[in-house]
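Tokens in:
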């Protein structure tokens, strides 16, 4: 078994003797991962490792930037990239506006009595 797993005999027996309990380092890493995940979630998945480091420093924790980066990679946390806000609605125009015939009353007694639609804005890749 030792040869198949490519581990040393002494390492295997030390692992068996430990009672399968996680090491202090593993426990500390798990606690740090929880802190980093909470800081990431509090930022609505917008902050990267540098901003998370600043947030944790404000609360008295000072993990290294590489430690935070490794934790985020291990947990699969990727910050959302900020996009520039683009105005898509021009409400101040002189074009005719269709009347709202339903006036938010979407109830119907049968099928095909009321049809509604929506215009979805799809951002082009180049902008």
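Residues out:
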């Amino acid at each position: 078994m030792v040869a198949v797993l490519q581990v040393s005999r002494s390492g295997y027996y030390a692992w068996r003797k430990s009672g399968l309990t996680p090491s202090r380092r593993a426990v500390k890493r798990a606690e740090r991962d929880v802190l980093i995940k909470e800081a990431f979630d509090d930022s609505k998945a917008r902050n990267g490792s540098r901003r998370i480091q600043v947030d944790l420093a404000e609360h008295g924790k000072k993990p290294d930037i590489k430690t935070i980066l490794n934790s985020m990679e291990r947990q699969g946390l990727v910050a959302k990239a900020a996009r520039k806000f683009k105005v898509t609605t021009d409400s101040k125009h002189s074009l005719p506006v269709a009347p709202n015939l339903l006036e938010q009353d979407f109830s119907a007694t049968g099928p095909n009595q009321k049809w509604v639609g929506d215009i979805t804005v799809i951002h082009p890749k180049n902008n």
